[in-house]
Amino acid sequence: MVKESTTFVEVCERLGVRPNGITATLIGRYAREYGLDTSHMTGKPKVRLSASRLSWEKVLQAHRIPRRETVSVLRRAMIESGIPYACFDCGNPGEWRGKPLALDIDHINGDQLDNRRENLRFACPNCHRQTSTWGRTIDPFAAVLELVDKHA
Questions:
Q1: Phi, psi of 15 (to 5 degrees)
Q2: Any idea what DSSP says for residue 51?
């Protein structure tokens, strides 16, 4: 995996973890500890089309990228695809006491990387917290350590 990547951020993406600074740093540290060759890494990420410019058909796919899609990109794609901006359960249109209320994005099957249109819906915070899939997260550092050990 390290051999095929040109940056530590790319390694993070291949491992399926959010490529933030600390994660990339940890991967670099483990690569050195395990004696993995990183001399081919250029440090320059590959240029890719901004997700904010992609059509909703390209964004709303299962496992399009190995990390969570940003909320703003998902929200835009969902609205453009015709999903109404209202809570699926109570019908709240994104307003509370006369003020705007940001609706959550609910992944119906609980897989936060499954962004297919039929797996997404808007939910007000109250209704979202009542769903069986609310708050499911995976510890990214545990995932990194497990994958690094497996591929070392």
A1: -80, -15
A2: G
Cα-to-chain-centroid distance, residue 56: 16
Q: State residue 50's pLDDT score.
A: 56
Low pLDDT (below 50) residues in the chain = 47, 49, 138-140
Residue 45: predicted pLDDT = 55
Taking each continuous run of H as one helix and of E as one strand, the counts in the chain are 6, 4
Q: Look at residue 7 in the predicted model and tell me its pLDDT.
A: 80
In our burial notation (b when 16+ CB lie closer than 10 A, e otherwise), range 4-27 reads ebebbbbbbbbbbbebeeebbebb
Can you tell me the distance from the alpha carbon of 13 to that of 5, in angstroms, rounded to the nearest whole number?
10
Q: Are the C-beta atoms of residues 107 and 114 closer than 8 Å to each other?
A: yes
CA distance 31 to 8: 10
**How high is the pLDDT of residue 49?**
46
pTM (predicted TM-score) = 0.57
All structural domains of the chain with their residue ranges: 8-47, 51-129
Q: How far apart are CA 21 and CA 35, in angstroms?
A: 21
Q: CA Rg, the chain, in Å?
A: 18
